[in-house]
């Protein structure tokens, strides 16, 4: 032991070191400096988040949510569905993998097309199912899809004439699914040249009174003469006279009776009428309508300079002349709006509707709207 101690005493003393903590080591809190361009850290600008998420969905899109509508099942990506649907965001909780939808609120075709739209949101909507898609989007609260549907419906060139009626008809059929009032009526305003083709269809006969009243009172629908409007109202009434007789006077009030041919007005006033029109002239209030129409007619065509004064005294309002069309396939159509109205019967009118049916539902596209003089003529 003594020998060992002697050797230790001979060792040189250790140099004295400063007592520093690891936290105080020079450079201990600094990261190495790499030569990396600053732009590489700005991922938010160079690589937007949404495209990256969509790309990830495209590559890895597990259908982990089942939508049940009656017996129909549709698989969707749960995250994607919740991103689009506010209803799903509230209803799908935790690890829920199934969402049951009510059959009385969601149309099946609308759900299928809505799910397809979610997968491909840039896909165009189809006209034939647009109202079912709207009903589904409203229930699921898919705001972006609702906005796209409304944007499409506001394109008058895309939804006019027959397309406008299709939307109106579907809105009426799906009225229990669409918490929107007035769309079925407002679309009827876009009907002009298509009107007589519509009158020739069974859909016209099935329309409710409110729609017929709007069409007959519309200043936008195009006809060859006011007598066609009169006969169009008669056609709808006669389809179910017992149930619709109560609406007859209301419809006659929106027909411009004073613009009917003068001889026909006299015929109706004296009780002479053809076939189904006879039922209408026998109504209690109809003679009063014809008396007012005849009085207004005689007043409006007075040529002694008293017309304006008489209109003011008797509160006579000039009816707006409807747009004019002429179809070469019709035997009684006049070629120009200023020509005298040709005499034709209700049977002649039905014969023309039959020609329309045989010629196809798109024959109205060959018709052009004309405008006559603003002055009324005794015809």
From TrEMBL:
Residue stretches in coiled coil: none
Pfam families per the UniProt record, alphabetical: BACK, DUF4734
N-terminal signal peptide: none
InterPro entries: BACK, DUF4734
BACK domain: residues covered: 166-269
Name of the protein in its database record: BACK domain-containing protein
Organism: Drosophila navojoa (Fruit fly)
């Amino acid at each position: 032991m003594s020998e060992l101690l002697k050797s230790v005493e001979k060792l040189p003393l250790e140099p004295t070191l400063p007592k520093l903590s690891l936290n105080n080591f020079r450079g201990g809190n600094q990261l190495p400096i790499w030569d990396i361009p600053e732009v590489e850290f700005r991922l938010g600008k160079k690589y937007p988040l949404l495209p990256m998420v969509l790309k990830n969905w495209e590559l890895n899109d597990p259908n982990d949510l089942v939508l049940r509508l009656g017996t129909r099942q549709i698989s969707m990506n749960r995250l994607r569905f919740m991103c689009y649907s506010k209803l799903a965001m509230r209803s799908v909780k935790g690890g829920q993998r199934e969402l049951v939808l009510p059959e009385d609120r969601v149309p099946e075709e609308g759900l299928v097309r809505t799910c397809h739209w979610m997968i491909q949101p840039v896909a165009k909507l189809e006209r034939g199912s647009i109202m079912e898609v709207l009903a589904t989007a409203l229930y699921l609260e898919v705001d972006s899809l609702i906005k796209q549907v409304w944007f499409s419906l506001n394109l008058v060139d895309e939804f006019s004439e027959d397309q406008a009626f299709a939307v109106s008809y579907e809105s009426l059929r799906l009225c229990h699914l669409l918490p929107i009032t007035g769309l079925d009526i407002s679309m009827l305003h876009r009907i002009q040249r298509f009107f007589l083709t519509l009158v020739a269809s069974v859909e016209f006969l099935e329309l409710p009174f409110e729609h017929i009243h709007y069409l007959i009172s519309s200043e936008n629908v195009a006809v060859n003469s006011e007598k066609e409007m009169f006969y169009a109202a008669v056609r709808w009434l006669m389809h179910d006279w017992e149930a619709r007789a109560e609406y007859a006077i209301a419809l006659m009030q929106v027909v411009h009776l004073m613009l009917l041919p003068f001889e026909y007005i006299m015929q109706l006033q004296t009780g002479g009428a053809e076939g189904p029109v006879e039922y209408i002239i026998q109504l209690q209030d109809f003679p009063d309508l014809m008396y007012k129409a005849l009085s207004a007619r005689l007043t409006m065509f007075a040529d002694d300079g008293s017309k304006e004064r008489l209109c003011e005294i008797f509160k006579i309002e000039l009816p707006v002349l409807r747009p004019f069309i002429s179809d070469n396939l019709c035997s009684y159509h006049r070629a120009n709006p200023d020509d005298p109205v040709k005499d034709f019967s209700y049977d002649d009118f039905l014969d023309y509707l039959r020609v329309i049916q045989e010629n196809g539902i798109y024959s109205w596209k060959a018709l052009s709207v004309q405008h006559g003089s603003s002055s009324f003529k005794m015809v």
